[in-house]
Design brief:
422 residues, mainly alpha, globular, 17 helices
């Protein structure tokens, strides 16, 4: 009976794919096709995915809408930027693994080149001693609004029941108290998977063991609420004795790339834990990097290029970018025909849902910490609150792919007006 069902399902898939096939393209043509997507990748993952769907599904019929939806569901479960992973996967249809690699490279290349150039410019100019200083203060406030809005959107899709909310709150508290994410996230996933299977006692025991482990190890030294100090260092002063080499930056990016559940914003706490806590850069520079990535046609995760540049110059930028994008390439290229089975595995799915809820808590804690550090640098709190509310209103009320760009632009303009003479 199962064989008959499998045959029927396969027949249904073939019927669904009837009339949908990619054109015959050379590897160079695949690269150029997806390079165009990269040049037009404004507005974040929702707008990027909608653009890919419109062109390759609705207009050019490379694959059916049903297959596209299944692929999107798979990549939303797995870590990494979904739009980039879809490009790699779809690029394999006409060109095999080389085509998939070139499709992903084409999609990310414009953002990488632009972010690399902006990173060089940022660290060439002494921002704190120029008119750009108050502008970037306003931009940093707008970025806090951007992260707050992202947490709200991600949470709406991830926190779907009471236990997931409890995991998110517990993870946020644990992060603020200094617990490492390598303790928090596995415990979150295991506890939720056990709870959904009715093994509530085991779920509670998992949480207790994780809490005891976090207490025994103690705070890991990341920048928690109780450890924030004013940071007025110029960009050149971000380096410290803990500044990593290219190999360290590559593995830092790889670690973050493997933990980006639920969208590119989830990479923020992991990169910040390495970069800020270890002295590669200040919180102010971290926010500036996020702002620069928000105005580029690229996945937001491209701000890792800025972090890598700050930690190790041009070679560091390349190393961290390679590390953070490696999982996005690897999952598609190596597991091309097996990815849809991820959705069929209920236990794994529940575990990843718990991890995603834990990541929401980590982002929330990181947002609070970044905001607390920024408040100490603001010339005045009331104007800063005004900039935050204006940016948040733009992001919440104007449903456009350009709302991030406008919010950052308005933050910079208001920063110049309100803080320029402070």
């Amino acid at each position: 009976m199962s064989n008959l069902a499998s045959a029927a399902a396969a027949s249904g898939c073939k019927a669904e794919e009837s009339g949908h096939s990619p054109p015959a393209l050379s590897h160079w043509q695949i690269f150029v096709r997806f390079l165009r997507f990269g040049l037009l990748a404004w507005g974040g993952p929702v707008a990027q995915i909608a653009m890919i769907r419109r062109d390759l599904v609705d207009e050019e019929r490379w694959l059916s809408s049903g297959r596209f939806n299944r692929l999107l569901a798979v990549y939303q479960v797995l870590p990494g930027p979904e739009a980039h992973e879809l490009c790699v996967h779809i690029g394999m249809l006409p060109g095999g693994r080389p085509g998939g690699f070139l499709a992903g490279l084409g999609f990310m290349l414009p953002g990488f080149v632009l972010m690399f150039a902006l990173s060089w410019l940022y660290f060439t100019i002494d921002i704190s001693q120029s008119a750009l200083g108050p502008i970037f203060i306003g931009v940093q406030v707008a970025v806090i609004a951007l992260i707050v809005r992202a947490v709200q959107r991600i949470g709406a899709h991830v926190l779907l029941d009471g236990p997931l909310w409890a995991i998110a709150v517990a993870s946020a508290v644990a992060a603020i108290l200094g617990a490492g994410f390598w303790v928090t996230l596995p415990a979150a996933g295991a506890a939720y998977a056990l709870a959904r299977r009715g093994q509530v006692a085991l779920a509670g025991l998992t949480v207790c063991i994780a809490a005891a482990l976090a207490v025994l190890i103690g705070p890991e030294g990341q920048t928690g609420l109780l450890e924030i100090v004013p940071q007025h260092a110029a960009p050149a002063a971000a380096a410290s004795a803990q500044q990593p080499g290219p190999v360290g930056l590559f593995f830092s990016g790889l670690e973050a790339g493997l933990l980006t559940f639920g969208g590119a914003y989830t990479v923020i706490p992991f990169l910040r834990e390495d970069a800020v806590a270890n002295g590669w850069m200040t919180d102010a520079q971290f926010l500036d990097g996020l702002a620069l990535s928000g105005i580029l046609p690229a996945p937001l995760i491209i701000f890792s290029t800025f972090v890598g540049y700050c930690g190790g110059g041009p070679l560091g930028a390349v190393a961290m970018t390679a590390g953070i994008f490696l999982p996005a390439f690897g999952f598609s290229l190596l597991l091309h025909d097996r990815l849809e089975k991820v959705v069929e595995n209920d236990v794994l799915h529940r575990f990843l849902e718990g991890v995603a809820a834990g990541v929401v808590g980590l982002i929330t804690a990181t947002t609070v910490e970044l905001a607390a550090a920024l408040m100490q640098r603001l010339p005045s709190l009331l104007p800063g609150l005004s900039v935050f509310l204006v940016a948040l209103a733009i992001l919440s009320l104007w449903q456009s792919r350009m709302n991030v760009v406008l919010a950052i632009f308005c933050g910079g303009l208001l920063g110049y007006v309100l803080f320029g003479t402070a």
